[in-house]
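In response to reviewer comment 3 from the previous cycle, which asked for concrete evidence that the modeling workflow produces usable outputs, we include below a single protein chain processed end to end. The sequence was submitted unchanged, and the resulting structure tokens are shown without manual editing.
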Amino acid sequence: MTQRNGKLTFTILSISLLTVMAGAAMAPALGVIRSHFADQSSLMVQLIVSLPALTIIITNLFFPFLFRLMRTRTIAVTGLVMYVLFGAGAFFTDNIWIVLLLRALLGVSVGMIMPLSTGLLAYYFPPEEQPRLMGLAAFMSQMGGVVATLLSGLLANISWNSAFLVYLLGLPALVLVAVNLPNERLKTGSATMEDAPDYYESETGITKARKKEGRPVASLMRFAPSVIGMYLQMLLFFIFPTNFAITARANEALTGNDITLIMVGLDVIAAIIGIIFGWMMKNMGRTVKYMAPLTFLIGYALFAMGVATPLLLGGAFFVGLANGIGMPYLNTIASIKGGKDAATTVMPLISAAMYLGQFTSPLIVSPISEALGGGNSPYLVGVIISILFLLQAFVSRKYQALGVR
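The workflow returned the following structure tokens.
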């Protein structure tokens, strides 16, 4: 890899470090924030975490239009400046309505940079490098979650609003983007799969004949399995952070710090998988497609069995594996389907599906869980959705095998 390519890769990956922090970074500080705004409803406080996801989705849907108006570096720099200003800006106010407005605008900034964090990898690097690069992007995203979670918790011990200073982590990425990212209008309508490894034919539905013809690969119908898969991936994953800290308290042998360490450990496992993901795609072939649904199924089945420490540790391990495998897999296949057009076609859809899953997970899981009797029932819902996710993986392969485009 040339020095220029190395700098460009690191610059794009630095954006991935920030994207997961939109809502999750505030989760450890939510208790302190709730105490400060004791006169407000619980819903108002919870919106501090969930509201950015909604505006991210809306911005993602308008990203192709935004792309026509602005060049790549301009979009990235604008998004990162907004990220720092609106993210850290909540430190300077004591008004819940202004805090929520800043959180909504933070979501707009993430909606601007999220498609670039993976789409630019597809534009600047060949298909055979996508598994390794998407694995590294997943690693950076997970490590961003680890750092943000720990730092936000520490800052919240100083004051409720100090936690928002965690968004100053966007400043190094802003400098890297301003210095290293080319400011060009990416060419569209010219992406092909000609250089992609043959293995991806069965995963993307693109045949050797079409590869040789060099026809554009962008097709909304072809993106549907990846978009649906990403929605189910995030719908499943967010069952864990929205329920684990509550249900694990029933285990009297674990302290609050122990529970936090288990949750951080899950992110570390996912990050480690990101490092070796390129090797997995190369050596494990088509089985990778089914590993995320299966490991989700095992993890939530263990959680549903009880709160004994071995069950909690085992469940967290397998859910971490599922998140570490599913995210880079779906991004890899989507980026290869989209080719050089990925940043303006499939990646905004993937990003929207990701945050839609995050936003709707508690809205779907909680009512069903309450109907089942509470307790560990959220994890029973996780088992059911995992089975649906597995079926979706089989159906999408059949969909492509039949030549449906």
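The longest helix spans residues 309-338. We consider this sufficient to address the reviewer's concern, and the full set will be provided in the supplementary archive.
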